[in-house]
Amino acid sequence: MAHVHPLLVVAPSTEVLDVLGHLPLSVDEEARAARMVRAEDAFDFRAAHLLARRALALATGTEDGELVPAQSCEGCGGPHGRPHVAGHPDVQLAWAHTRG
Question: Which helix (H) or strand (E) holds 85?
C-alpha cells in the first residue's frame, strides 16, 4: 500500500523569492521565465518553481533544492507539461500559481 503524505505550501511570490531566491532554477526554467512578457509573471513563475522545491524538501526530508522538479511534454517533448522528479517515481508533484 502506498503511503500518502499530502503537503500544501502557500506564500506570496515576494516572500518566496526573499527566502528561496538563492536556489538556482534549471536552464529550461530560466529560459521559460525569460520569455514571459510581464516581469511580474516571471517573478511568479520563478517563485512557484522555488516553492515546489521547498515542498519537495519538506515532504522528503531533503535540503531545499536537492530535489528538482522537471517537466517534459508527452506530446512534443518540450520543457512543459506535468511536473515530475527524475529518479523518484513515488513522488508526485503539482503546482498552481496566480499573480503575486
Answer: strand 83-85
- How far apart CA 23 and CA 4 sit, in angstroms, is 27
* pTM (whole model) above 0.85: no
Sequence letter at residue 24:
P
Identify the three-state secondary structure at position 71. strand
Partnered with residue 84 across adjacent β-strands are 70
d(CA 34, CA 74) in angstroms, rounded, equals: 23
Which burial class, exposed, middle or buried, applies to 61 when counting CB atoms under 10 A from its CB (0-12, 13-18, 19+)?
A: exposed
pLDDT tens-place string over residues 44-75: 999 989 988 988 888 888 998 899 888 888 89
